[in-house]
Specification:
With 480 residues, the protein is mainly beta. It has helices at 2-21, 393-396; strands at 25-27, 43-44, 55-61, 68-74, 81-83, 86-88, 92-95, 101-109, 112-120, 131-139, 147-148, 169-172, 199-204, 209-213, 218-222, 259-269, 272-275, 284-291, 298-304, 311-318, 338-347, 353-364, 373-377, 382-387, 391-392, 408-409, 412-422, 430-432, 435-436, 446-455, 460-472. Strands 18, 19, 20, 21, 23, 24, 27, 28 and 31 form a nine-stranded antiparallel beta sheet that branches. Strands 1, 2, 3, 8 and 9 form a five-stranded antiparallel beta sheet that branches. Strand 10 and strand 11 (147-148) form a beta hairpin. The longest helix is centred in the first third of the chain and has 20 residues, at 2-21.
């Protein structure tokens, strides 16, 4: 009887020592919410962009089962190495013992008290295109192994995954979110305001028409056709623009938008985006626009001078016409409803410039904002926006372009836009834009695509945008 009691006490002491020397689990589920936080994920942001501080959270059980936490990371694409806070190879480490990984709060659970920890990855991990990889481990300094995320049931000495492999997490830093841009109250977040100036230029090819303001911002695209077809409508009536308002008495914002509120480019340099719509005239000067000879090509120019920059921006807008070979859609029909915009960027300053170049669209497909949908077609590197909803204007409160009592929108209208940096001026080979808004946003009413380029002093680079229209004369089409 005495021996049994001794054996019971010894086994209890050993079990207690084992439990206190090994974490029960370490958890890091990057997209999961953080306990006690609002709108925060265990990797926050979960899809990082350049210059963004990234917080890595770990959930560890249970309190007092361990003493140390570490985050091992690399920035060269290799898997991190090391153990118990000692890195190997190119690995760097953040340690709780150095106050680089910090306890935030407890969470009561049925199994015991769980601890939440947070580490902020340093500035060296915030470079565009960087492949950041990391691992998270916890251990007791007195004894026992290091337990890696995401392994569970380890406090009995044998984890659910007995091999206890170090799980590697990772991400690629995307291009910076462009934001509202220079001159706005919060220039790094959101989207640019609608701003048009001297809306008077038109390009087209009888299959599609586009209207531009003098800054080169597209604010109307009429397609299919140079006008429109039954079932398609503008967003509203007339034009409101200071002294040019027509007809009188229209509410602010009316400009008869067809399919787009605006479509334009932006240049980000030195951490600030300058939209070519040029709100308040703060970013660009020497703005000009004219037809190029006796053609339907619009040539525009402006100069980015804000912040000591000296970048000449030339724009050439046209609709291809009378091509010997047209691109074809999925049904082998010639695709003629296209608008092309060529951008020539010349650095006339004395220092090299690292640029981010964006094309941003704010849709108003088929005369409204409430039914717009959008996505990225990654196989074609194009952003898509469409409206294929069958409806009547009276029931939706949309503009009725006719004199009849109601108007039915029973068609499917699609638009696609893609961006390409060409290898040489006037060339055809090059690289399609690989960054977009969809990687970190579910927004349906706006979107952007972007690319990065470097301009040496005196160097000119060409970036081209194409916009294509698709149409079906029935609603709810999915293969337009």
């Amino acid at each position: 009887m005495v021996l049994n009691r001794i054996a019971f006490v010894v086994s209890g002491v050993l079990a207690s020592a084992l439990a206190w020397g090994v974490p029960a689990f370490v958890e890091h589920l990057s997209a999961d919410p953080v306990f006690g936080e609002s709108g925060v994920t265990m990797r926050n942001p979960n899809t990082p962009r350049e210059s963004e501080a990234v917080d890595v959270w770990a959930r560890i059980g249970y309190s007092f089962f361990y003493t140390d936490v570490a985050v091992y990371y690399t920035v060269d694409g290799t898997n991190p190495g090391g153990s118990k806070g000692i890195p190997t190879g190119s690995t760097l480490v953040l340690r709780s013992s150095a106050s680089q990984v910090n306890f935030v709060r407890n969470q009561s659970t049925s199994g015991g008290t769980v601890d939440w920890w947070r580490a902020t990855l340093p500035a060296a991990t915030r470079i565009y295109g960087q492949n950041v990889k990391y691992r998270i481990g916890a251990w007791h300094s007195a004894s026992g192994p290091e337990v890696w995320a995401n392994n569970y049931g380890c406090d009995d000495g044998v984890c659910d995954n007995p091999a206890n492999p170090p799980l590697t997490f990772g991400y690629l830093n995307g291009i910076a979110w462009p934001g509202a841009g220079q001159g706005q109250p919060s220039p790094q977040v959101g989207y640019p305001p609608i701003h048009h100036w001297k809306e008077e230029a038109v390009v087209g090819n009888t299959f599609i028409n586009a209207m531009l303001d003098q800054n080169g911002t597209v604010y109307d695209i009429y397609g299919p056709g140079a006008g429109a077809v039954r079932g398609v409508s503008t967003k509203n009536e007339g034009y409101v623009g200071g002294l040019d308002t027509f007809p009188p008495g229209l509410p602010p914002g009316n400009r008869g938008q067809m399919h787009f509120n605006h479509l334009m480019a932006g240049i980000r340099v030195d951490g600030l985006t300058h939209w070519l719509s040029n709100p308040n005239g703060q970013s660009f000067s020497n703005v000009t626009q004219t037809y190029k000879g006796d053609t339907n090509v619009i040539e525009g120019a402006s100069r980015l001078t804000f912040g000591g920059n000296n970048i000449l921006v030339q724009q050439f807008d046209f609709a291809p016409y009378n091509l010997a070979t047209w691109p074809q859609d999925a049904s082998n029909n010639n695709l003629r409803g296209m608008i092309v915009k060529r951008y020539l960027l010349t650095n006339e300053g004395s220092t090299s410039k690292d640029l981010r170049f964006y094309v941003y669209g704010d849709w108003a497909i088929n005369g409204g904002d409430n039914f717009d949908q959008s996505t990225m077609d990654y196989s074609r590197r194009a952003m898509l926006a469409w409206d294929n909803t069958d409806r009547f204007t009276n029931s939706t409160g949309e503009y009725n372009p006719t004199t009849t009592g109601d108007y039915r929108k029973n068609v499917s209208v699609y638009y696609a836009a893609a961006l390409k940096t060409v290898d040489s001026i006037g060339g055809t080979s090059g690289d399609w834009a690989t960054d977009d808004w969809r990687a970190s946003s579910s927004d349906q009413g706006q979107g952007w695509i972007a690319t990065r380029l470097t301009l040496a002093p005196g160097q000119t680079r060409e970036v081209n945008m194409i916009v294509a229209n698709g149409f079906d004369n029935f609603p709810n089409a999915t293969g337009t």
